[in-house]
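Lay summary. Proteins are chains of building blocks that fold into shapes, and those shapes determine what they do. In this project we predict the shape from the chain. Here is one chain we studied, written as its sequence of building blocks.
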Amino acid sequence: MQSGTYIATIDMSIAKEGRFVRECIEPQVMMEALAKHSAAQFKNLQRNLNAQKKAAKSDQTDLFFDLDQEFHQTFYQIANRSQIWEWLQLNNLQLNRFRRLRLKVPGLDWQTLLAQHEQIISAFSEWQC
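And here is the predicted shape, written in a compact code that computers can read:
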């Protein structure tokens, strides 16, 4: 009898559905967070973005993924939508597996990923409390 480790393939149709749900929900969550955030929360988001930049520069993909998750989760927390975040995490396992693996692709354009977060921070800085 043989034993070993088996890695399940990523179901891309489920991952795409998960991405669709996040893309539909997050703009509303961002708007709610924009109206409710504090100066301290904004500074934490800025610190997170700076840490993302360092992780990207040093090609620390797992750290970058974790920081990205924390970045988005923070908006759900600010908007008082933490239960939605938890639901998304339970239902987006395929998407998160894909996102984590995609970060390991050689030659990944980190600037595109970071630019999106910089735009979000920029919008928040215009509405800073």
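What the prediction tells us: Helices lie at 12-36, 39-57, 61-78, 82-91, 93-102, 110-126.
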